[in-house]
Write a structure and sequence with these properties.
The protein is about 75% helix and about 0% strand. It has about 150 residues and is an all-alpha fold. The termini are far apart.
Length: about 150
């Protein structure tokens, strides 16, 4: 399944993904950002699980399974630029904006804004077609708990 999803994501003109594949790709992006500082800790894994539970109305065990599959996809996915551009082409804008909020939630999960995570999130936001201003507003909403 992951190989098929990666193949579809890296086609020259990827089609919009079915919901289950979009969930997996977006969750893999959360994992990539969480891993970017070299410290993928339990707080970040838990946060990704809670995001999946809330965002996709999943039971905790289903969210854990999605996160585990996303970890596998992330480790096999191409470089961040190609992976993120493929997601942009395959996922509607509204979902991408929600992903930025989720990404900030993961970055802020451990209470530390790591420079590697900040840098990667700026890159990912731009690649997803989200402006720096909208990303900053998303960060503020997350930090304020809204």
């Amino acid at each position: 399944m992951i190989g098929d999803l990666l193949k579809r994501l890296t086609e020259p003109t990827p089609e919009q993904l079915p919901d289950a594949d979009a969930r997996l790709a977006l969750t893999a992006l959360l994992v990539r950002v969480a891993r970017s500082d070299g410290d993928y800790d339990a707080e970040e894994r838990d946060r990704i699980g809670r995001i999946a539970e809330t965002r996709y109305a999943l039971a905790p065990e289903d969210a854990r399974a999605l996160r585990a599959e996303a970890e596998d996809l992330e480790s096999q996915a191409p470089d961040t630029v190609r992976f993120t551009r493929a997601i942009k082409d395959a996922v509607p804008y509204e979902e991408r904006m929600g992903v930025i909020e989720a990404l900030w939630s993961v970055v802020l999960a451990d209470g530390v804004r790591d420079p590697e995570e900040d840098s990667l999130l700026r890159l990912v936001s731009n690649l997803l077609g989200i402006t720096d201003r909208d990303s900053a507003l998303a960060r503020q909403r997350v930090a304020d708990g809204r």
